[in-house]
TrEMBL record:
Organism: Melipona bicolor
Catalytic activity: Hydrolysis of terminal, non-reducing (1->4)-linked alpha-D-glucose residues with release of alpha-D-glucose
Protein keywords: Glycoprotein, Glycosidase, Hydrolase, Signal
One Gene Ontology MF term: alpha-1,4-glucosidase activity
GO biological process, any: carbohydrate metabolic process
Protein name: alpha-glucosidase
UniProt keyword Membrane present: no
Signal listed as a keyword: yes
SMART domains assigned: Aamy
Stated family: Belongs to the glycosyl hydrolase 13 family.
Amino acid sequence: MFWLTLVTCFLFVSWGTAVDVNWYKNIIVYQIYPRSFKDGNGDGIGDLNGITSKLEHVADIGAKALWLSPIYKSPQVDFGYDISNFTDVDPNYGTLADFDRLIAKARRLKLKVIMDFVPNHSSNQHPWFQKSIRKVKPYDQYYVWRDAKIVNGKRQPPNNWLSNFGGSAWQWNDVRKQYYLHQFATAQPDLNYRNTALNQEMKNVLTFWMNRGVDGFRIAAINFMFEDAKFRDERRSNKTGIPKDDYDSLVHIYTKDQNETYVTLKSWRKLMDEYSNRTKSDPKLILTEAYTTHDLTIKYYNAGSNVPFNFMFINQLNNESSAMDFKRLIDKWVRTVPKGSVPNWVVGNHDNHRVATRFGRGRADDVILMSMIMPGISVIYNGDEIGMVDRKFTYAETVDPAGCSAGRNRYHLKSRDPARTPYQWNNSTSAGFSTKAKTWLPVHSDYKTLNLEAQRDIYITQYEKFKKSMMVKKRAVVAHGSLNITLCDSRILCVMRAYGRDRIFVLFGFIDVPITIDAETVLPFPSDLVVHTVIGDSELRPGTFVLSGSITIPASGAIMFATPNLLSSNDENL
Ligand code: BGC
Ligand code: CA
């Protein structure tokens, strides 16, 4: 099977430093949302120095790489995804010198640093856009401008395209006397990838950050980069009960997933490969964000993405999904990943409800455990490792543009604020996130008990469970072992990994009450497996053999058995 081919391969270069071409193939990537992770200067907004001060935590959870959501200079309309300078740090977050210090400490802790790269649009405050408005060459072509359509003598947008944040995707500009395209907020004009000079500019941005030591990029909203060259109207979807100008009211065949996207991605892959070859450094990691079909996601592998985000835990599975639903989707993913590539498992991110809110606390732990025992890359959103949940926001408190533009009656359907509240470090002021009592988003009120420090002090907490399940990620059995997913009965998903003599065997219970089963009928190797990790309330203690008798899987929980050698936290050289 494909992961058997992932033999560790170190290429030695002349002066003895090893280039590890497989460094990313079986790791945890930890997403940091900089505004909400740690505030270093007490202004209520997270920043780079705050992150640097907490990198030990990233190492502690066993992550190999951290991905920073945007820290670039930005008016913060979309909280950093509206960039006014692609090669500078926003003063809210610090300076380039702070960034260099973050990289240096990450190196010492053997952590790779991945930047968010936002190619689809810039801020309307970007000097390129300001010059584009005035038709200054070559910037005049950097954005997607179109003439108005005149209907009954009145000015109308060139076509019916809609913004992801609602309303027309076109905005009139009175200076240029044309409309510009914005697939997201009005303040986020789409860049024009049909222009050669713009393509080169964006390559220069990638090189700038690679020169500063960045190990890869998470490419934001990649499938929005190109639009139909003929600017055809999109047809209406059959979704009912939504406003006429809601993004979901159209079928997006002309504004998403265009074939040219893959061609541009290939050119970035080439640029990064040439860079790492030239500098004799580890290959750069490319992660791509595209909410799209299975086939179009898989296609990103062939265009050079190492991690085309697999969002199945976010948009295909939820707390009502059955054991069979999980089996079907996981098998399909693993089966369709191209040879030599690895699967990935995104547990959560800043754009969706928190995993503990989507699945409920118990099952969220199951999902995290699943992401750890599957081959490949587990992508964890900051706070999910301690079981943080969504905070409810009033409309008045809402700041996310997706929520604000949906209006008072619908903001709760669109706002992403609930999953973006400050990280809960301890039970002091603002959960230890900031010394300031008023933070950019309010801290969740459950922080007094739900915080990292509290969880460090108590045995078998959320965080302990997370750490135990993460330990197996580093083992050869997870990286290279065979994978076999079966249903022990319709409510129990059994996942088995085997490599040499090492075995992992996990029973996931898909029911809200405990299920008792006969050990001998389910355990494949009763003589050599011990309890490794238990999700949920149970009498079972790690390290005990369960040779016969009955086993009770906790309500919405799981039991992981393993060969005893896997109980220790020894890292393996994969
Ligand atoms: C980000 C979103 C953002 C969108 C538009 C995505 O990649 O994850 O938070 O709103 O891009 O910029
Ligand atoms: Ca700050």
